């Protein structure tokens, strides 16, 4: 007996075998993995999870692979930080950061989804993997393909941040820079996927790939002492991450590992690419595609595949979806670094910017727990925040010169505190 029944259309319910498929041939709805939860319940226990590896594979029984994991064996199980300093500034006693800036191998949450996708791709017999990406996914596919000895193609927008381009090239994949935005890249990859027998992790392997995001919910509950948080703030690109975190919470509740879920799920977008936030604010049941224009390039998907489902999840949970300006994104990045020593990329700035906005609105009650998902490392997007950071002191190698610089800096700080320009 298998834990996977197959694939099922989210719209019409038509079923398919657990193959490399992602779209319903009847209604063109998206396919997702259908599980045999009765069987899973005979295999998984809290004790088994606790005795498992310190990686996302401790939840193997709830992930869409048939055999043992073969890729990304060290991905996941990243730190949960009680952010007391940031919480104090925002008036939150129980603020936590789920910190995927230190994920293995490539310092973003994409290492989770890629570990699952490439393990499944190998099970299905593929020898070539590929993706359309705004950066982090390409980095992760490139690294894990190198580890798994798979041929690799990654397709990226040509204006991607330099750090992320380098983060692909170092692993020696075939990097294809496309003159266009992510939606242009994704359309091209859909055409290529129809011509070549490759495992595109976010196209024909997408049903398996997206399930890896559930582990961010599993880990949060386990690290909070087998409890669901009262609130979570999740960045939105395609919308898949948010929907799968919700799914992960509910799966643990259905298994009896946690109490019934009452978590309010909040979405975060950058104003320059906020089609999901716009749909939420305008009370629409459809997403209007936009042309992205934001420094938060990892979230710059103008036509998000799961945007509609993300809105449904947020509404059902009693949450909200907010957006922040590019200036607020940078403020979020610097605030997080200054208070907690965590250098997040622009997506993290979006999350913290929205968290700050929601806290100011009084959305979080005293004593409630809040988890903010920080999904990627700031070393990849240094150019976005660099102009806001100033420059180092430049002194001669003498004590007197240092003391003069210290006096000048102290006077400058004092003037700023008094509002003197």
TrEMBL record:
GO terms for biological process: isoleucine biosynthetic process; L-serine catabolic process; L-threonine catabolic process; threonine biosynthetic process. Its cofactor is pyridoxal 5'-phosphate. Residues 74-376 form the Tryptophan synthase beta chain-like PALP domain. One of its GO terms (molecular function) is L-serine ammonia-lyase activity. NCBIfam families: thrC. It is an enzyme of class 4 (lyase). The modification N6-(pyridoxal phosphate)lysine is found at residue 110. This is Threonine synthase. Its EC number is 4.2.3.1. Belongs to the threonine synthase family. Keywords: Lyase, Pyridoxal phosphate. It holds the Pfam family PALP. Gene3D superfamilies: 3.40.50.1100. InterPro entries: Ser/Thr_Dehydratase, Thr_synthase-like, TrpB-like_PALP, TrpB-like_PALP_sf.
